[in-house]
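Cross-check.
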Amino acid sequence: MEKREGVKGAFMVKNLFWLGHASFRIEGSKTIYIDPYNLKEEQKKADIVCVTHSHYDHLSVKDIKKIADDKTVIVAPVDASSKLSGKVKKVNPGDVVEVEGVKIEVYPAYNTNKTFHPKSNNWVGYVIEMDGRRIYHAGDTDFIEEMKNLKNIDIALLPVSGTFVMTSEEAAAAAKTINPKIAVPMHWGAGIVGDRSDAENFGKLLEGIIETKILL
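Predicted model, tokenized:
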């Protein structure tokens, strides 16, 4: 497989902040949070919040309230949206929506060899396109067939902990299929499941193939 050029990698990653577990903040023309959970310090207010599914460590109403105001748009799958208030936009896998000038593609996220995240729940991951960059947050998922349809991904945020999601080995295989410029391991280090060794193994498996970055 041809290695994608990552010359602008450092620039892209400096606008991406890992907040622990599967939670991220993306800064640019808008401030976007994905699955804010267990936020440990005062954070910038959100223009957009994307929620992947309704498990407590991904849909935390308490944490969303810390970053949301009356202008914040929350994008969430249907079952999660019922637990939220304010400007809530319901989505399903396959949707493409525009929120505050940001293009958001909605992808399925589900388990193939375990039962924690059934496909029938219509839980999701997102491709967020902002300021000319495409960031894929996989949500809680295994290596699924639909990942083959992802195109021109700059940064892929992939779960690596195993148990509820992909193992680091499975996530590395997924990264090779997605072929982003940069791959970032997530879903570890929060005391729930997974630790730094999972993230490091993910990086070793992609060494010389895809640039990886463990965010702190």
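DSSP finds five helices and 13 strands in the chain. The first strand starts at residue 16 and ends at 20. Passed to J.P. for a second look.
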